[in-house]
Design a protein that fits this description.
alpha/beta; Rossmann fold; about 15% strand; globular; binds NADP nicotinamide-adenine-dinucleotide phosphate; protein-containing complex binding
Length: about 325
């Protein structure tokens, strides 16, 4: 039985990746900073949860040996420059080292659409710049830029646009906000996205591990859905699909940049994860859609699913089918 360690396996995408991997016969190990975060996946057969912080290099070096492959899904959306660098750049560096030392043969790294390992400095946000630097670190290792001169591992980098699914924090959050508020003041209203289904992203991870030819490593794949929407369209659609406002949704009006910045600062003061931060606004200066310069999901044999029928299902079901039970019933 092949063994794999999935960093970030407790998260939104990670739970779907883990479920697919165990179904494909992999023995999966998931490190987490807090075991309770693994509640949705710990019942899966052949899945082991390890309580450790992957940023702790010594702990990572102990956890990686014995695995044939590694998936990295660890990322943050908000934080300081230091936090972005620690999570998106320093961690990939530690992963590259741990995989080289342990002889791990395959790495799948989930990055983000808009990242560009060749020119990180040109990108508008800390999120995209550090995602790009993290890609560059892993690509150098995969191209044999290390001391050995040999490729350390086969590398696939997935760059998804915004990801939707029953547990997403995007479409669900916009629907939730519109259940509460009668109007929606919206930052970045004209920014364009190409939403991709979480099941398609998880399938892509598995196909990279099982189907990709070593000759094409390192490979970059843009994981996008079949349609492009502005943020305003997505917000309106989330409310309409959830039946809010009699199925018409709420009035959505675009905030000018200065007002969006004030809104982001105020959200940053509230406890918990902000819906929108200054850095998110910076990210939205560039459209989050396929560049057409890299292969897409079709190159992995995946026909990307459309947003509306799937989002309608989970927005309407009002969390009745939440969690892994819901994921199961939809994927059968
Ligand atoms: N969701 C999207 O719309 C979207 C769009 C584009 C790209 N992506 C990329 O897809 C990947 C997965 O995203 P996701 O939405 O599944 O993320 P998520 O739900 O936020 O999960 C992130 C995971 O990373 C771990 N993690 C977070 N911060 C960490 C830190 N500082 N140190 C160590 N571990 C940390 C968490 O593990 P523990 O808390 O259990 O330790 C968690 O399991 C990420 O690379 C993300 O950038 C996501």
């Amino acid at each position: 039985m092949k063994k794999i360690i999935v960093l970030g396996g407790t998260g939104f995408v990670g739970a779907h990746v883990c479920e697919k991997l165990v179904r494909e016969g992999w023995a999966v190990t998931v490190p987490t900073r807090r075991r309770i975060k693994a509640t949705a996946i710990m019942h899966l057969p052949n899945l082991t949860v390890l309580e450790l912080d992957v940023n702790d290099e010594a702990a990572l070096m102990r956890a990686v040996p014995g695995n044939d492959a590694l998936v990295n899904l660890v990322a943050i959306l908000h934080g300081t420059q230091e936090a972005f660098e620690r999570t998106h750049v320093a961690l990939p560096r530690k992963i590259a080292k741990a995989c080289r030392v342990a002889g791990v043969k395959q790495v799948v790294h989930v990055s983000a659409l808009g990242a560009d390992a060749l020119q990180p400095g040109k990108l508008p946000s800390m999120y995209l710049r550090t995602k790009s630097e993290g890609e560059a670190v892993l690509m150098q290792a995969a191209m044999g830029a290390g001391t050995s001169g040999q490729a350390d591992f086969d590398l696939s980098i997935l760059r998804p646009s915004v990801i939707f699914g029953a547990e997403d924090k995007f479409i669900n959050v916009f629907a939730k906000l519109q259940r509460i508020f009668p109007v929606m003041p919206l930052a970045g209203a004209e920014a364009r996205f190409q939403p991709v289904w979480v099941e398609d992203v998880a399938t892509a991870v598995v196909h990279c591990l099982e189907g990709a030819s070593p000759a094409t490593s390192p490979r970059i794949i843009e994981a996008v859905g079949p349609e492009v929407f502005t943020l305003k369209q997505l917000v309106q659609m989330s409310a309409q699909l959830a039946g809010i406002g009699g199925g018409f949704g709420r009035p959505v009006f675009a905030l000018p940049d200065w007002a969006a910045r004030i809104q982001a600062k105020l959200m940053g003061l509230a406890p918990g994860e902000p819906v929108m931060s200054d850095d998110n606004l910076d990210s939205m200066k560039v459209d989050n859609i396929s560049t057409g310069q890299q292969p897409g999901l079709a190159s992995l044999g995946i026909i990307a699913s459309a947003l509306q029928p799937i989002a309608q299902d989970y927005l309407n079901s009002n969390n009745v089918k939440s969690g892994l039970m819901g994921m199961r019933s939809r994927s059968h």
